[in-house]
Design goal:
Growth Hormone, Chain: A, MFS_trans_sf, MFS_4, 16 helices, MFS transporter, mainly alpha, membrane, transmembrane
């Protein structure tokens, strides 16, 4: 019923809140928590890398399921289930130190993250498009930056002493009201299943996703997923190894990442409009590559600070610009192309921590794994250069 529809502002804020919950309080809070849990003795560094891999595997499974359940009615049925799974996994993490159970919980949390991160933006975009306000949809990604910033505070809340599993309680308790409120508003969005004419559907069903125009974009995005996930997963842990567990940058590095993320979506959207999406994407990957090289080549404290600032201000831009560039290369393939890119990004994010764990198991050090990220981002830069100019 129209009277039950939330306002535009409430709908956008609710969607942003849900991304804050699953991405900030579910997925990436593990990054600042990891060195603390290792210092507590709950995990080893190698076990932490393995847990990150299981979480990213869950994200991939959730994203693939979200691609299958893409109709608005399917999305609205799935969102409450995904949010319930998120909250239950965080509550479970707050009460157990048993590693196999923690592994299962991180897998489940990844599934909920993948479902929400794909479904909520898709649902809101359909709702806004019906009201001719689709330009507002990008504002929901402010929830990602806010979630990263909040995760840095909640991982080590001022004046509160927590250890081992109890470190998850702040995120778990805050997730409950935000998930309830945001999920309730998403259920109030009345969205009809988008109709597709016969003429419109034919090109999308017959044309291949991978052709001479899009293949370089896919290859570049594969490198982007692996390149950014290593510093985003291990940067505080690397700071702890290089500077000592009590050094302020162990916690501050993540706060710098989070603060830099807040204006990133607006910045790269603006640069894409001014410079063109391909040129802006080249600049974006160059920035990400510089962030990883800074951590590898500069003195530890300076390198960690610069890496935090540059990777935080750039990784969301790669997502935004790649999605838009892909649509301009194949205008009739928008939904399918976007889904395929998300799945690919998930796969290479999964590979990054897994390869880091293998390196550690063979006697390497965690800071050395950033060379893998540098190589992946150089790969992304080269293939983006080979991506054809899209007609705008």
């Amino acid at each position: 019923m129209p009277s039950r529809q939330p306002s535009l502002l409430h709908a956008v804020i609710a969607a942003a809140a849900l991304l804050l919950v699953v991405h900030g309080l579910g997925r990436f809070i593990f990054t600042p928590l990891m060195p603390l849990l290792v210092n507590d003795g709950q995990l080893s560094t190698s076990q932490g890398a393995a847990l990150a891999s299981w979480n990213y595997l869950g994200y991939l499974l959730g994203a693939l399921a979200a691609i299958r359940w893409h109709q608005p009615q399917q999305i609205q049925r799935s969102i409450p289930l995904a949010l319930a799974l998120h909250c239950l996994t965080l509550l479970g993490l707050a009460i157990t130190d048993y590693l196999p159970f923690i592994t299962l919980l991180r897998l489940g949390n990844g599934i909920s993250n993948g479902l929400i991160f794909v479904m909520v933006p898709a649902l809101l975009m359909e709702w806004l498009a019906a009201r001719q306000r689709i330009g507002l949809s990008g504002l929901i990604y402010l929830g990602v930056g806010s979630g990263l910033l909040l995760s840095g505070v909640l991982s080590h809340p001022p004046g509160v002493t927590l250890t081992n599993a109890s470190r998850w309680w702040p995120a778990a308790l805050l997730s409950l009201p935000l998930a309830l409120w945001g999920g309730w508003l998403m259920l109030r969005l009345c969205v009809d299943a988008p109709g597709t004419s016969k003429d419109d559907s034919a090109p999308a069903r017959s044309a291949p996703l991978l052709d001479a125009r899009t293949r370089p974009l896919f290859l570049a995005y594969a490198g982007a997923g692996m390149g950014y996930i290593l510093p985003m997963t291990f940067l505080p842990m690397i700071a702890s190894i290089q500077l000592g567990s009590s050094h302020p940058l162990v916690q501050q590095s993540w706060l710098i990442v989070a603060a830099a993320t807040l204006p990133a979506a607006w910045l790269w959207n603006h640069l894409g409009i001014r410079l063109g999406d391909r040129t802006a994407l080249l600049l974006n990957y160059a920035t990400q590559l510089a962030s990883v090289l800074a951590a590898l080549a500069l003195p530890a404290s300076m390198g960690i600070m610069l890496c935090s600032l540059l990777v935080g201000s750039s990784f969301l831009g790669a997502v935004l610009l790649t999605q838009r560039l892909g649509r301009s290369l194949q205008p009739h393939q928008g939904p399918r192309l976007s889904a395929a890119l998300i799945a690919l990004y998930s796969v290479t994010q999964l590979l990054g921590p897994w390869l880091a764990r293998e390196w550690l198991n063979h006697g390497g050090t965690l800071p050395e794994t950033l060379w893998l990220g540098a190589g992946a981002l150089a790969w992304a830069l080269i293939w983006t250069w080979r991506t054809g100019h899209a007609n705008r």
